[in-house]
Amino acid sequence: MGENAILNANLAVQPLGDPIYVDDIGIAVNKGNGEMLDRLNEALATIQENGTYAEISEQYFGRDISQ
């Protein structure tokens, strides 16, 4: 993510306006491995609900990137 690079490189630039595009991020799971898919989705839902996702996002990106 370019925004992360800007923040970590201490560049004298700032984001202006909305991004041109947003990358969707996914986790690959072997086809047919429904149990793993269910467990991943459950874990993601849990950290989103309990605020851990936003906390991690704030730590690394300075904002909640899930919004």
UniProtKB/TrEMBL annotation:
Q: Which domain of life is it from?
A: Bacteria
The opening ranks of the lineage are: Bacteria, Pseudomonadati, Pseudomonadota, Gammaproteobacteria, Oceanospirillales
- Solute-binding protein family 3/N-terminal domain spans which residues? 20-62
- UniProt-recorded name of the protein: Transporter substrate-binding domain-containing protein
InterPro entries noted in UniProt: Solute-binding_3/MltF_N
Native organism is Billgrantia campisalis
